[in-house]
Each structure stands twice: as structure tokens, then as C-alpha cells.
Specification:
The structure holds 2 protein chains of 2 kinds.
Chain A lengths: L9 E6 H11 L2 E6 L7 H12 L3 E4 L3 H13 L3 E6 L1 H6 L1 H9 L4 E7 L16 H6 L8 E3 L4 H18 L2 E7 H5 L1 E6 L2 H5 L18 E3 L2 E3 L32 H16 L2 H4 L2 E4 L6 E6 L1 H15 L4 E6 L1 E3 L3 H10 L2 E6 L5 H11 L3 E6 L7 H11 L1
Parallel strand pairs in A: 2-3, 2-4, 4-5, 5-7, 6-7, 12-13, 12-15, 15-16
Antiparallel strand pairs in A: 1-8, 6-14, 9-10, 11-13
Helix pairs in contact in A: 1-2, 1-7, 3-5, 12-15
Chain B lengths: L2 E8 L4 H15 L3 E6 L9 E9 L13 E4 L2 H7 L8 E4 L12 E4 L2 H9 L5 H13 L4 H11 L5 H20 L1
Parallel strand pairs in B: 1-4, 4-5, 5-6
Antiparallel strand pairs in B: 1-3, 2-3
Classes of the chains: A alpha/beta, B alpha/beta.
Chain lengths: 389, 180
């Protein structure tokens, strides 16, 4: 065991929810504000134990709106900060997620998804918030969303979520679910020394000539260090309204300025899609059928692919570790080399809309395999693979 | 090789605890991969509940149960819900205190762990550890030394000795059951 209380070096058997907390604290998260909702309750519970041990702060807020607002404030004050919730709470948080995207405030939101719509079923998985993660708030903006598929990845991708939030100055959503949150699995945490090499620390902008918001220079978008309240790097005021790269509000008489701002916010994520997205390929080299999946269904998909291979069908899998920005480049590449694509989702087909769009462009057929409130069984995906092979 | 097991009964019978012992021993002490999931929800205490464990030498893809190799069934309801889901060459474990009859022709071990826990250890809570070691001995699923260490590490210090005795009693029980 390590002396470093924030990084619990060693091998553990823990749930996805607990792994998310360990990942956050190891990545430097020192503030959590949240409100109870099943199936994420172990996340705030564990934060309330762990944060005081590392000199951080835990607050149980009055609701999810207060939670995300407190996280925005903590991030502005210089802390790496996070909240977590499930579907209904995630809906309540959208106004501030939009605000944080607009003001380029790094923060992380864990969404341990449960069945919806409405209150739904509290204890079973449903990936119903995939589109909400991207389009939930008002206005045009882009965020980053990661989708862990194991307890280990609930740790690893939470660390990555904090890094991405710092690097791209954006809210990052972790899309977990009720089943993953309660899966107990081995989680290996490397030595603090090794681990710290991969952590992006909070930076403060320079005293002179600091442009606090993303700007263009020689045709490239530059994402400056985050704003920090109480330092020289904080602008004269925090513009909650549309603003230019200096933070000066854009008047309604010059709409060109707001066009530029919205474009910058979206471009910094979309145009850097290849740098941000993370995927893993299995058996794709000679595949005729590609399963494209994220989260736990990717593991079911892998099982189905292996069973298909045993039956002589050339199947492969592209696993998306990030959902947003959409992995356009990686999916186009797969679509160019296969005959058909199978997309298992625990929803009515949310990312399928995007995948189908790419597939159609490349002249490949895409097929959705729906499941709700439970994980697919491998044979459900296998029979679709056999049907379209 | 992938092995799947479901433990089922009522909340409070130690279903989840037993599954956690198995998954922890497999992952930490036996160098294998393992996933544990449980029926998580408002009925977990007193109502019907189950926990699933998958163990493999390689990283586990599908984390759920496809067709269990082993069933540990602690209630009549659990028997009627799951007894027929097992592989034909699987093994069912029951406790005669709670389960009398099991349909089908699958191999079965009746292990009176509740009664032994009460008679010899004074508390039904030790039934878990007795079942844990008996199950591992019969299935030869994990090295017993490794499993023993996991029990040692997961119980309070003052309860180590009695748990070690319960663990050894489970092995004795398994030996006896296998010789019958």
C-alpha cells in the first residue's frame, strides 16, 4: 500500500461506483457536491469518507441543481471538482452544464444511468442519457463523454475525464450504469510515482496578455488554462453571457461575435475529435461484420464476436471508450472495411443514429440490437451477426 | 476456463457475502479474473435475492451468467427459480435446513452448514464460511490456502480464529460429503 492517501496503489476488488471515486481522488479531485439518487449513492457515500482523508471537501447539497452549481464554483476557485447523479438528477443539472461549457469551466459529472424515462426503475441499467449528455442543455455546445466498461475502466476513465476536462476546458460526463456501478471486479492502481506522470494538473494563465477563453491563432484553436478566482488570471468578471476571447460580453448589435464564440466552443471539441476519442479494436483486421458498442454491451459484443469466430464468421468489435465527441474517423475507417455493422445499445438506438449516418455514407448496412433495463445476452447479438454476415 | 455460479436465497442469508468471498479470493489470492454482480434493489433485505460470480483465467468479456456451472441455493424459491437453469454437468449445493427437494438429475451436495454453524459455532453467521470452503473443496475451483487467507483478511481480528475453524470445518464437511 502506498503512503499517498489519494492514490491507493495496489490491487483491489471494488465496485464500479467505488472505482469512480478512487479514480477521481487519484486524479486530484478535491471537491464533491451531490445529492442522493439510486443507483449512484455509493459514489457520494465513498466521497464523504475519502475526501476528508485527503484534505478535500464533500458537501451534500439540497438538490442536483445546487450540486452542479457548487461544482462550477469550486472549479472556478481552483479545485478539480465533480458531482455524480443518475438520469432524473442529470436532467436537473443541464442548465449549469451548458453554462460551464459556455464559460469553459472544467468539471466532471458522473451519471450512473438507470431506467427511464421519468423516475423509471431505479436499480437497473439503461443507456437512455447518451443523447442527453450531448444535447441536454440549452444552446449549441459540445462536451466530452466517456463510457467505462469495467470496474478498472471506471477508475481509468474517471482519471482520464479529469485530464480531458483540464485539457479542453469543458464538462466531461462519465456515462456509467446501474449494473456497472455495482459490478465488483479487480482494479489495479499503479504506484503514485508512475500514476502522477499522467495527471494534468490545474494551471493558471500568465499575468500579462492572458486571453482567458479559447481563441484562434494562425488558424489553430488555442485552449488557455482555466480561470481561477482570486488570482491574477481571473478576468474582470465572469461572463455568463456570450463573450469574446477576452471575456468581454458581445452586444446584440454584433451577432458575428456570438457566431464566433459558439463556433470556437464547438470546434475545439469536434475538430479535435481524433485527439480526444479513445477506441479499442478486436478482431477487426479481416472482419466482415463489425460490432460497434460502448459500456457493458461492448463486453457482451466481444463475447458474441468470439462465438461468431468459433462458428467461422469473420466478426470484429470496435469498442468506444469515449462516446462524445463522436468517433467519426475511427468509425469511418471500420465502415470502409466491413460489409455490415451491428450496434447493441441499452436504449432505443441513440448512438445508432450517428453510426448509421456514417455507415450509410460508406454504403454499409447498420443494424441495431435493442435492450432495455438489462444487459443483452450474447446470443441476441450473435444472432444479429449471423443474420447480416 | 470460464466458470459461472449463482448464489440465491433471501436477503440476510449471506448470499452477497458469500459471492464476495468467492470473487475476492479468485481475484486477489488465486490470480484469476472474476466479476461479481448482484440483484441490487429495494427487495435486497428479506426478499428474494441472488448474486452471480464469473471466474476465468483470462479477462472476462460478458460479465453476466450464460448458463451456470454451479448453483448454491438457500431457499425453496431459489430452487424453483434457478435449479433448472444449470448446465447438465453442473453441481447444485443446498442446505437441508432450508431446501428439501430439488428437481432434475443434476449432481447435488446437501451441506447442513446452518445446523453446523449453530451447533458448533453458536451463530448462524458462520454458515457462510463453512459453505465457502466446502464449495471450493468440492469444486476444486480455487486453491484452498488462498481462500483461507482471504477469510483471514476479511474478518475482524478477534474473529479470525473462529473463522479459521469454520473454514476448516467446511473442508471436513466436503470430504465427508464426497466420500458418501
Amino acid at each position: 500500500m502506498s503512503e499517498d492517501k489519494a492514490i491507493r496503489t495496489g490491487t483491489h476488488v471494488i465496485t464500479g461506483n467505488d472505482a469512480m471515486v478512487e479514480g477521481a481522488i487519484a486524479a486530484g479531485c478535491r471537491f464533491f457536491a451531490g445529492y442522493p439518487i439510486t443507483p449512484q449513492n455509493e459514489v457520494p457515500e465513498m466521497f464523504s469518507v475519502r475526501l476528508p482523508e485527503v484534505g478535500g471537501n464533500f458537501i451534500q447539497m439540497e438538490d442536483e441543481i445546487g450540486s452542479i452549481a457548487a461544482v462550477v464554483g469550486a472549479s472556478l476557485a481552483g479545485a478539480k471538482a465533480m458531482t455524480s447523479t443518475s438520469g432524473p438528477g442529470f436532467s436537473l443539472m443541464q442548465e449549469y452544464i451548458s453554462q460551464a461549457a459556455q464559460s469553459e469551466i472544467p468539471l466532471v459529472v458522473g451519471n450512473v444511468q438507470r431506467t427511464g424515462p421519468g423516475s423509471g426503475i431505479v436499480s437497473v441499467p439503461h443507456h437512455g442519457d447518451v443523447m442527453q449528455a450531448r444535447y441536454g442543455g440549452n444552446g449549441d455546445y459540445e462536451i466530452i463523454a466517456v463510457a467505462p466498461a469495467s470496474a478498472q475502466e471506471s477508475f481509468d476513465l474517471t482519471v482520464e475525464a479529469f485530464n480531458l476536462a483540464e485539457k479542453w476546458r469543458t464538462p466531461v460526463i462519465i456515462l456509467s450504469d446501474a449494473m456497472l456501478g455495482h459490478c465488483r471486479e479487480k482494479v489495479v492502481i499503479q504506484s503514485a510515482e508512475e500514476f502522477k506522470k499522467n495527471i494534468i494538473e490545474r494551471k493558471i494563465g500568465p499575468r500579462k496578455g492572458f486571453k482567458p477563453f479559447t481563441y484562434e491563432e494562425n488558424g489553430e484553436l488555442i485552449v488557455p488554462p482555466p480561470l481561477q478566482l482570486g488570482t491574477h488570471a481571473f478576468p474582470f468578471w465572469l461572463p455568463s453571457v456570450s463573450h469574446n476571447e477576452f471575456g468581454i460580453p458581445i452586444l446584440d448589435t454584433v451577432p458575428k461575435g456570438s457566431f464566433k464564440m459558439v463556433k470556437r466552443l464547438c470546434d475545439k471539441i469536434i475538430k479535435n475529435e481524433e485527439k480526444i476519442t479513445m477506441t479499442e479494436s478486436y478482431y477487426l483486421d479481416d472482419a466482415d461484420v463489425a460490432v460497434i458498442a460502448y459500456g457493458l454491451p461492448a463486453r457482451t459484443g466481444l463475447r458474441a464476436v468470439r462465438e461468431a469466430r468459433e462458428q467461422g464468421i469473420k466478426a470484429g468489435l470496435l469498442r468506444l471508450k469515449t462516446i462524445w465527441p463522436f468517433a467519426q474517423t475511427a468509425i469511418e475507417k471500420v465502415a470502409e472495411s466491413v460489409k455490415s455493422i451491428v450496434v447493441p445499445e441499452i436504449n432505443m438506438g441513440q448512438l445508432f443514429i450517428e453510426i448509421d449516418r456514417v455507415a450509410a455514407k460508406k454504403g454499409v448496412s447498420a443494424h441495431l440490437v435493442i435492450q432495455i433495463s438489462k444487459l443483452h445476452e450474447p446470443h441476441e447479438i450473435l444472432s444479429k451477426i449471423k443474420e447480416v454476415a | 476456463m470460464r466458470k459461472e455460479m449463482r448464489i440465491a436465497g433471501y436477503g440476510g442469508q449471506g448470499v452477497v457475502t458469500l459471492s464476495m468471498l468467492i470473487t475476492t479470493a479468485a481475484s486477489l489470492a488465486a490470480g484469476k479474473f472474476s466479476v461479481q454482480t448482484d440483484a441490487y434493489g429495494p427487495t435486497a433485505r428479506g426478499g428474494a435475492c441472488y448474486a452471480d460470480v464469473v471466474i476465468d483465467d483470462e479477462e472476462i468479456d460478458y460479465p453476466g451468467i450464460i448458463k451456470p456451472d454451479y448453483l448454491i441455493l438457500f431457499s425453496k424459491d431459489a430452487v424453483s427459480s434457478y435449479a433448472r437453469s444449470i448446465k447438465p454437468d453442473g453441481i447444485i449445493f443446498t442446505d437441508p435446513t432450508t431446501v428439501k427437494k430439488v428437481p432434475g438429475k443434476v449432481k447435488r451436495y446437501e451441506l447442513p452448514v446452518q445446523q453446523i454453524a449453530l451447533d458448533e459455532f453458536g451463530k448462524s453467521v458462520f454458515a457462510n464460511v463453512i459453505m465457502f470452503s466446502a464449495f471450493l473443496k468440492i469444486t476444486d475451483l480455487l486453491p484452498l490456502d488462498a481462500a483461507r487467507n482471504i477469510v483471514r483478511e476479511s474478518v475482524p481480528k478477534k474473529a479470525i480464529d473462529v473463522n479459521m475453524k469454520a473454514f476448516d470445518r467446511g473442508i471436513e464437511l466436503a470430504d465427508q460429503a464426497m466420500s458418501e
